[in-house]
Write a structure and sequence with these properties.
The longest helix is centred in the middle third of the chain and has 29 residues. It is globular, with a radius of gyration of 20 Å. A two-stranded antiparallel ribbon has the order 1-2. Helix 10 runs parallel beside helix 16, helix 10 runs antiparallel to helix 17 and helix 12 runs parallel beside helix 14. The protein has about 400 residues and is mostly helical.
């Protein structure tokens, strides 16, 4: 099947979007296989809750500057695929090295280096997804990509659970084999994804902040408020362990969360195509606020499991749809740059968010970081409600062709 601009389709999804999603699925299988057990592994190395949060915050935030640069550079060159190949290669090469670390500092170095790869690939990949989408289907495309990403985040924890069930406490065995799915992912990218080149006349010139509308910056400000309370998910896994869930079953919390996210990501993206991105994101922010309030109050395994399932619905209604909204707002020739700045802001804000949450967890109690996140999410939802109601261009997504 072909689209109106001659692109092939697979199961109704543009071929580029499908195989970019497959690459993310396989790479996220690797990443989440590691991530779902990393907090417990770090505790075996003597790391505190604050140190765990700091490692994740530094890894994501310090590398995030590359998200802005790679997005701008991909716009400047009119090419996305080379940045994607380089970025995904970092995960393939570095993931197995966790099997050989002996202290938290070494974990930080490898995590930081692997996140550099994510910084290089993220904005160009999102730009390629946007450029490969038919007009009016961008929400669906980002929803599909989010679903594939989270499908990998289901398989990864499942593989980690299988390893820990067979070899209790043997985290290093999981790390050793973790790079194999990512290797298959980069092969899928190299073989099947085709570059969406931009005509030279449409390439951006010198970048200026005036190139982006005020509505874009207003949305970034709201995202900043929300992200400041959206600390590393590692603390959710620590909270699950503190609530009495067996360590071998901790990766299953990620499986539950991502299973729900996969189920709802495409419908949520399609809904945003119809009723507006902002309304769906507002729902996601309000849901997050309720979920974090619940994590603060929960003290039983059953409550934690239910909250992880709800957390998957929040994920489906925010991340991919926020990216789709960014591509709606910015000029078509600056999609990579706009997405890069957005990803940079989210990533860099994770550092103070994670530090604040870790300190609250260690020095106040294990409820405080969740109450803090709940309050900021509620504030962000209120701000986005005003943004949607009084924004100059209203529902901008309907006015920006793909």
């Amino acid at each position: 099947m072909r689209t109106t601009d001659g692109q092939d389709k697979i199961a109704g999804i543009e071929k580029n979007v499908f195989f970019a999603g497959l690459t993310s699925f396989l790479t996220d299988t690797t990443s989440k296989m590691i991530y779902s057990i990393m907090p417990l592994f770090l505790m075996t190395l003597g790391a505190s809750k604050t140190e765990i949060s700091l490692i994740e915050g530094i890894a994501d935030s310090t590398a995030s500057i590359l998200k802005g640069l790679s997005g701008w550079w991909s716009d400047k060159t009119g090419r996305n695929k080379p940045f994607m190949i380089i970025g995904y290669a970092f995960t393939v090469l570095l993931s197995p090295l966790f099997a050989f670390v002996v202290n938290p500092v070494q974990v930080l170095v490898i995590r930081f280096s692997e996140r550099v790869g994510k910084g290089i690939r993220t904005a160009p990949r999102d730009s390629l997804v946007a450029a490969s989408s038919e007009c009016g289907t961008r929400g669906r495309s980002f929803g599909f990509h989010k679903a594939m990403d989270n499908s990998g985040a289901i398989l990864g924890p499942l593989l980690a659970f299988a390893v820990l069930s067979l070899f209790p406490g043997q985290y290093r065995k999981a790390f050793l084999i973790s790079g194999l799915p990512a290797l298959l992912g980069i092969l899928s990218l190299i073989i099947f994804v085709k570059e969406r080149k931009t005509e030279k006349g449409k390439l951006p010139g010198r970048l200026s902040f005036k190139d982006f509308p005020a509505r874009y910056y207003a949305f970034l400000a709201i995202v900043f408020v929300f992200t400041l309370g959206n600390s590393t998910d590692a603390l959710l896994l620590v909270k699950a362990a503190d609530s009495g869930i067996d360590p071998a079953f901790i990766p299953m919390m990620y499986l539950i969360y991502n299973s729900v996210s996969v189920l709802f990501s495409i419908p949520a993206g399609m809904l945003s195509d119809r009723i507006g991105r902002e309304r769906v994101i507002i729902f996601g922010y309000l849901l997050y606020s309720l979920i974090y309030l619940g994590f603060g109050r929960a003290n039983s395994s059953s409550a934690i499991i239910a909250l992880f399932a709800m957390y998957g619905l929040y994920s489906a209604t925010t991340d991919g749809i926020q990216k789709a909204l960014v591509t709606d707002i910015v000029d078509s020739k600056l999609k990579g740059t706009g997405l890069g700045i957005y990803n940079f802001l989210v990533g860099i804000t994770l550092l103070p968010a994670s530090i604040i949450a870790g300190l609250l967890y260690d020095h106040v109690d294990n409820r405080a970081p969740f109450y803090f996140g709940s309050a900021l999410a509620l504030l962000a939802a209120i701000l986005l409600l005003f943004y949607n109601k009084y924004g100059k261009h209203g529902n901008s997504h309907a006015k920006h062709p793909a």
